Structure formats: structure tokens, C-alpha cells
Amino acid sequence: MKLGLGDELAEVGVPTGSMNFTDRFGGTILSLPRGRFAGYNWPQYSVHRGELQMLLLSAVRGRLGAGAVRTGLRLEDFEQYEAGPAGPAGVTVSLRDVRTGGHLKETAGVLVGADGIHSAVRARLHPGDGPLLWNGIRMWRGTAEGDPFLDGTTMIVARRAKRRRPATRGSRHRPPAVTTRSHAVPSPRSPVTRAGPPRRRLPGAVPPAG
Prior knowledge:
The chain is of the alpha+beta class. It has helices at 6-12, 49-64, 120-125; strands spanning 14-15, 18-22, 28-33, 45-46, 73-81, 90-97, 103-108, 137-146, 154-158, 161-164, 177-186. The protein has three domains: 1-52, no CATH class; 70-125, SH3 type barrels (Roll); 134-145 and 175-210, no CATH class.
């Protein structure tokens, strides 16, 4: 891997061999090879998002230092400046500490606007775009433990459900398999229609946080 994290990723993920699309009875409609099984130079991994994030966080701190990642700060504004007698080109960002309410400024050579769906960077660069357009659909997801299926490296998309088998190597606390159920419902605030909560819950499902 070009990031040098191939071995670490292999410890927390499973190299997905195929993605199978099935009907609600389990009959295969289409099966597509994934990653190296499809001829690519790199594998495709099925991995828990939280474990992937922690792996990347550990790598950043290991390479850039423990203080390279600071949490609890919200970007509110920024100012770009060109190279000149005072110094090279760069950017100054205005940040707010969400825990204390305090404000601070930081200067850097580059600003990457990865500050979420309600990005202050985007609003600053494109002030005339207005609010985001929402289709009125809210997604509910839950997970439940289960037994491995097929060869243990297959992702199944069955109707509206996605099932995948995450890795067990080097991670003893995880179950043999996890089923992820996605349920899309119009929000009560949707201009399209109104709907109640999901009609039934997958046994053993974990409700989403927040």
C-alpha cells in the first residue's frame, strides 16, 4: 500500500472477494469480483469504519507527533494571503474551542476543507450556493451479530439490506460476522410525506447513536 499501512489494514479488515446482489429469497441476481479478485493491484477491504479511523489516527500521530491531531475545535472562518515581503503564501484560520467557547487563530501553508457536510470552508468559498438540498429521506442503520456465511469474504446486498463479514484476525472482541441493516424512511420534516418509525427491528440490532 502506498501509505505503508497494508499490513495494519489487513489485521482489521477482510479482503472482500465478491459483492453479490440477491433477491429477498437469497437467489443471486449478479455477482461481481472485488479488489484483487477483479484484477486490481490492491485489495478491497470490508472494515469497521471506527477501526479504520483509529488506524489512520494512530498512523498520523506516529508520523507527525502526538499533537498533530487536535479535537474539539470548529473552523469558523479563514483568510488567504499571497506571497510577499512578509513571507510565503498561506492561510490563517479562525477556530472556536467547542468546550470552552474560546477563539484562536492558526496559520498554515494549506487548508483542506474537510469540515463536514455543513462546511464553513465551502460557505466561505461559495457564499451564493445557499443551503444544501435534502431529499427528505432519513437512513436508519443497525448491526447484529450472526454466523459467517458463504466463504466469509462476500458482501451481500439483498433488497435494502447490506451484509458483510468483518475481520476476526487480530481482533478477538468482534463476533464472527456482523449484519448491517439499512432502513430508509421519509422524515417527519420531509416535504414529501410523513412516516412513523421503522415497523420492525432486526433481532439483536444496535440502534444508532445520537
